[in-house]
Amino acid sequence: MTKEPNGSLAGHGGDGAAAKRDVPSDPFRVAVFASGSGSNFQAIVDRVKAGELDVKLELLVCDRPGARVIERATAAGVDTYVFRPKDYPDRESYEREIAAELNRRNVDLVVLAGFMRLLTPVLVDAFAGRMINIHPALLPSFKGARGIADALAYGVKVTGVTVHYVTLDMDAGPIIAQEAVPVLEGDTEDSLAERIHAAEHRLLPQVIGWIKDGRVKIEGNRTRIERAED
Asked: Which CATH number is 44's domain given?
């Protein structure tokens, strides 16, 4: 399946819209947005394949043709939607097409996992309360694309990882979970990033599972995690 001249859709499954998830047997559908190597995407794939995360990876959305994450998705049998932002007059134009594809597939949760573009209300409002992001710092500290480098430069002794809901304000939505990562003496950006990424790979699939199970409740700008049912 291919869309021209802009977004390109490569499929491995059926060619029709899935039925809405209105019975317990329907899968919980997840779309992942990523721009780079896709190590967090791979962590989700691995948990699904191991039977530790009961979701269907419905779609990978990528804004960089040739990114390694596309190869990972293809190897995992996950459909990909690849686009070039420069082919569109503005962000809203490509986001409308992506939103239409997500809705066609009845996506339950959008996961931003290293997606290096700010989103507009077209997507953020359409998936309010159903879109999460992983950030390589303990928010609200060190927002933005240089979270690891900024934490190291500031000299903090502890940094970490945050998973939060996405709002129009960058890195400011309700925090779902965080994991602390110590900054060691002599750390470089690369050595610290390695431990940060390891924490991301643990935390992100766990949070996706909580959301799938209905355990995450948004209360204003806070979240509450309910205990798992026995």
From this structure: 3.40.50.170
CA 12 from centre of chain: 21
**Helix H segments across 66-109?**
68-76, 91-104
Q: Answer yes or no: is 227 within a domain.
A: yes
- Residue 56, beta-bridge partner list: 29
C-beta separation of 223 from 175 below 8 A: yes
Q: Do residues 139 and 95 touch, judged by C-beta distance below 8 A?
A: no
Which of 161, 195, 155 is closest to 178 using CA atoms? 161
User: Given its phi and psi angles, is residue 120 left (phi above 0), alpha (psi -120 to 50 degrees) or beta?
Assistant: beta
pLDDT tens across the length of the chain (230 residues): 333 334 666 654 433 333 334 445 689 999 999 999 999 999 999 999 999 999 999 999 999 999 999 999 999 999 999 999 999 999 999 999 999 999 999 999 999 999 999 999 999 999 999 999 999 999 999 999 999 999 999 999 999 999 999 999 999 999 999 999 999 999 999 999 999 999 999 999 999 999 999 999 999 999 999 998 75
Choosing from 86, 110, 127, the residue where a domain stops is 127
Q: Which residue among 135, 164, 197, 201 is the active-site one?
A: 135
Is 135 a residue of the active site? Answer: yes
Count of structural domains, the chain: 2
CA distance linking residue 153 with residue 161, whole number of Å: 17
Say if residues 69 and 149 touch (Cβ distance below 8 Å).
no
